[in-house]
Amino acid sequence: MAAEKTEVRSKTGRALLVIDMLNDFLEEEGALFCGPASREIIPFVARKMKEAREAGEPVIFICDRHMPHDKEFEMFPPHCVAGTAGAGVTPELTHREGDLVIPKRRFSAFFGTDLDLHLRELGVREVVLVGVCTNICVLYTAADARMLGYDVTVHREGVASFDQEAHEFALKQMESVLGAKVV
Ligand code: ZN
Predict the structure, then answer these.
(1) Centroid of ligand 1 to alpha carbon of 65 (angstroms)
(2) Distance 104 CA to ligand 1 centre (A)
(3) I need a surface site. Which of 7, 66, 83, 160 has the fewest CB within 10 A?
(4) Is residue 8 part of a domain?
(5) pLDDT at 90 over 60
(6) Domain limits at 20?
(7) How far is the CA of 59 from the centre of ligand 1 (A)?
(8) Which ranges in 10-75 belong to alpha helices (H)?
(9) Does residue 6 fall inside a structural domain?
């Protein structure tokens, strides 16, 4: 019996990774609000999602999703606990059937997940990153993507952090040390 075909290869070799655009990070009342800058990028991210879909590129939601007593909570207040509303993608970005969701428990979208396998199956060579926070999950996802040999593009207007200085540092680091394209 032939396996059911559930994934469509990227038409361009690119995929858009929408990182941690979740209620706990984007709502002022959220458990770990990333600041007003994180809300300001929502329209840009929505536009990039639309463009990617029109170009036949996969849109992949990378979602922090923790256990109730996750080790990470020794460093940060509890957030994005599995099954809570806070762990949901902000309603301002439309999920579509067929959009992949990759839950993660650590900063990097590659750590302990099957993202790399999905990207290979989708024929992806370049990942385009948008989301929060520039200096945490975006940075460490970019680092692992580069270590694995992917081309990486980061949209300056599509990433944000609660810490502007760290945001700028991370963009510089991704460009000059990781060899990402910051556009
Ligand atoms: Zn987390």
Answers:
(1) 7
(2) 8
(3) 83
(4) no
(5) yes
(6) 14-182
(7) 21
(8) 23-26, 36-40, 42-54
(9) no
